[in-house]
User: Which sequence fits this backbone?
């Protein structure tokens, strides 16, 4: 039987589920330069539900693009610059991966122990600064504008992750306070307000608390149609919450979208979801970690909350974003490294 090139890739993708039930995490896979190539289909891209099959590419590998960070976070894709930037929080720097040649360099230092980043619809970088307890915008002329550093007269704990709404240009962010709990990722100091999710009005700059329902609201993202807000809770619940959005500016009562508990090798384990992003079909791609091999990496959830797939990494995965010319390249920040893999879908948002 003769197969076209596309037919081969599709057939190979359908085989991933069979191949991937093999040993947990690719038998001590080597991601270092000069390592032997991985055999297709990549054994660490795992199908847990048949709905994941359409997003698999049978002849593409997980690649480590860079290593040497202390805690990599906050990836954001610049469509104009054609680069991926991210934070190395303890080293207090922004890093940059150039698409054209794979070159990695320090983009900016110091940066206030920045965690989460995104680009707004004018191409400006929005950052959550742990060390300075504020949300800032990097202007086209190189200056930095402070968008928010207080709520009702009290300092934020340490803003963490951030997204921009396309219809209003309002900026939504989380404030769990991790950067104030020690001097490694920020500056140690007391948490002054309840951990919460906030919105900065683009016209008035007024800051509104949206919800403080989550114990430790961490990663956040909009659904593909902007009718829901997802929030990863890295506190005691260890789950992902979903909130219905009304009027592009308010959220209702949250409900559990999915627990991060998972059966692994006949044992139920519970790690954490951190950074999250939606694709154009409404699936949620969530970084995951703090369990070990077979769990750490990326977990993919269908719109109904079912876990349908995994991308297993040799490190805790802290965050994800879609990028590349077609927004079909998933970038993943691990503990110390930056990874990527092509998928057969596209990110729903610009960064």
Assistant:
């Amino acid at each position: 039987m003769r197969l076209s090139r596309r037919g081969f890739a599709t057939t190979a993708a359908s085989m991933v589920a069979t191949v991937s039930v093999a040993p947990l995490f690719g038998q001590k896979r080597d991601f270092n330069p000069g390592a032997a190539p991985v055999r297709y289909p990549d054994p660490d891209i795992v199908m847990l539900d048949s709905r994941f099959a359409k997003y698999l590419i049978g002849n593409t590998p997980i690649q480590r693009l860079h290593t040497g960070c202390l805690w990599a976070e906050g990836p954001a894709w610049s469509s104009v610059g054609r680069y991926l930037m991210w934070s190395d929080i303890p080293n207090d720097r922004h890093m940059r991966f150039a698409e054209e040649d794979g070159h990695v360099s320090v983009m900016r230092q110091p940066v206030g122990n920045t965690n989460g980043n995104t680009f707004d619809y004018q191409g400006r970088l929005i950052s959550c600064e742990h060390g300075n307890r504020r949300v800032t915008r990097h202007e086209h002329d190189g200056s930095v504008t402070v968008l928010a550093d207080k709520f009702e007269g009290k300092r934020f704990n340490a803003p963490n992750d951030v997204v921009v709404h396309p219809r209003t240009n309002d900026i939504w962010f989380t404030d769990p306070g991790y950067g104030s709990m020690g001097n490694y990722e920020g500056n140690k100091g007391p948490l002054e307000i309840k951990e919460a999710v906030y919105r900065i009005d683009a016209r008035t700059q007024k800051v509104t608390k949206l919800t403080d329902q989550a114990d430790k609201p961490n990663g956040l993202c909009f659904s593909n149609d902007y009718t829901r807000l997802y929030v990863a809770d890295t506190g005691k619940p260890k789950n992902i919450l979903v909130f219905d959005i009304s009027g592009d500016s308010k959220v209702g009562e949250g409900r559990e979208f999915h627990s991060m508990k998972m059966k692994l090798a006949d044992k139920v384990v519970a790690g954490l979801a951190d950074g999250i992003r939606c694709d154009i079909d409404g699936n949620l791609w969530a970084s995951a970690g703090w369990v070990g091999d077979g769990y750490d990496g990326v977990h993919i959830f269908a719109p109904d909350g079912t876990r349908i797939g995994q991308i297993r990494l040799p490190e805790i995965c802290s965050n994800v974003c879609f990028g590349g010319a077609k927004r079909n390249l998933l970038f993943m920040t691990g503990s110390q490294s930056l990874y990527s893999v092509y998928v057969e879908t596209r990110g729903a948002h610009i960064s």
